[in-house]
UniProtKB/TrEMBL annotation:
Record's protein name: DUF2851 family protein
Length: 426
């Protein structure tokens, strides 16, 4: 038994139609369940409940046991002073407000049908043997509701991603250009080196990037050195040695700390080598000013593809690592990689920036992500295997959010799918 089932029962009026009573025998008539609160404070706001003929308007709190009121220290919290009803599965102790008045308690275990409980337990018991609990009944969910739910999940995913951006903005005194650089660095690091690139980029004063962006060699030296790629001891390549000399000069000039570690090459395809990605990042910033404003003004994916039509430097056409010649090939950013930049950097930044401006760009963001190809990973493949096809990047992002923050945590009663399936039981 979980509290989220109690929320579902209360919110969807799944209590039996027979008369309800408090623990001390007062009659209860639910006029309105109120609005569910998913933040701190009572579980439902602005409920209307008639107790012994007296209509009360206020908040409702829910627990598995009434003694949880004291376990959670609500008796000392002013936010719970206006709770008009305590809804519990088991009423094991009387509960009092801060002023000493007793809170009416409704013990609901005697008012819930066996069909609801059986449906809930059947849904939750699938967790150990299935990809997701509802996989056998997922196709039964109304397609319109599912589409709306996926849109909400996509926005929720943007909200979650924006937490990192908000933290970076706070540290940089709202320097959007600096935050863009850090987020792009994380993206260019990909899964293997993303965290390392993020940490290194966040440790670099972005004003130094600005100061060196008009001098390609300086910017190359700065970023190759700062991202730990100039520490090779036995490389005699002239270009590499030139970058080392330039990086030594930059470190002295700006009093920079040299990296104590380096990025990983193991398990990466050559096009994802950090040397190639850093060179591409360099060429994105060489001679570029106000990149953030430029990218925020772009609308459709074709405009964004044009802005990221960059390649690694000429040296890297015949190299993947310093000093080792390879077959000549231009190292352009692929559209698939740019899609990842759009999904993981531009969309979250646009989302945060719109909030900063007091605007709503959600429909534009939904249109943009809907125009991108779906992501290809194990979670999306598992959804396909149970009959849930994914059409585009909006749906793949939404399903990643659904699986990560709902399915894998058994939050079925907070999911439109789970609640609709259980709601079919009267």
């Amino acid at each position: 038994m979980r509290e989220d089932l109690l929320y579902f029962i209360w919110k969807h009026n799944k209590l039996s139609t027979k008369a309800l009573f408090t623990g001390v025998g007062e009659t209860i008539v639910i006029r309105s369940p109120g609005t569910q609160n998913r933040l701190a404070g009572p579980d439902f706001f602005n409920a209307k409940v008639e107790i012994d003929g007296q209509l009360w308007a206020g908040n409702v709190e829910m627990h598995l046991k009434s003694s949880d009121w004291y376990a959670h220290h609500h008796e000392n919290d002013d936010n719970y002073n206006n709770v008009i009803l305590h809804v519990v599965w088991e009423d094991d102790i009387a509960v009092f407000r801060k002023d000493g008045s007793q809170i009416p308690t409704l013990e609901i275990q005697h008012y819930v049908s066996d069909q609801i409980l059986d449906g809930y337990h059947s849904l939750m018991q699938n967790s150990s043997s299935s990809f997701i609990n509802c996989e056998r009944d997922l196709k039964a969910v109304d397609s319109f509701k599912m589409e709306n739910w996926l849109h909400r999940l996509f926005i929720e995913r943007l909200e979650n991603k924006s937490q990192l951006i908000q933290g970076l903005l706070k540290k940089s005194n709202n320097d959007w250009e600096s935050v863009l650089f850090i987020m792009l660095a994380k993206n260019f690091g990909s899964k293997v080196n993303g965290t390392y690139f993020l940490e290194r980029a966040a440790a670099l004063d972005f004003s130094i990037v600005r100061k060196t962006s008009n001098e390609p060699l300086q910017l190359e030296a700065l970023l190759f050195g700062h991202f730990g790629l100039l520490g090779v001891e036995d490389c005699k390549d002239l270009y590499f040695l030139q970058l080392q000399i330039e990086y030594d000069y930059i470190c002295r000039k700006f009093n920079l700390d040299r990296p104590l570690s380096k990025p990983d090459f193991f398990g990466l395809r050559p096009m994802n080598f950090p040397t190639i990605r850093v060179s591409q990042l360099v060429n994105l910033y060489v001679g570029t000013h106000n990149l953030f404003s430029t990218l925020m003004a772009l609308k459709g994916k074709e405009e964004i593809y044009g802005a990221f039509e960059i390649s690694a430097g000429l040296y890297w056409e015949e190299h993947y690592t310093f000093g080792k010649v390879s077959k000549k090939r231009e190292k352009l950013l692929s559209k698939k990689f740019i899609d990842l930049i759009i999904i993981n950097t531009l969309l979250p930044l646009k989302f945060c920036y719109a909030k900063h401006l007091g605007k709503d760009w959600n429909e534009d963001l939904i249109a943009l992500v809907s125009d991108l190809a779906k992501e290809d990973n194990s979670i999306i493949k598992n959804f396909a295997a149970i009959g849930s096809k994914t059409q585009n990047a909006l749906e793949s992002q939404a399903k990643l959010e659904l699986y990560t923050n709902y399915c894998s945590k058994n939050k079925c009663m907070q999911c439109v799918v789970g609640t609709q399936l259980l709601n079919r039981i009267t």
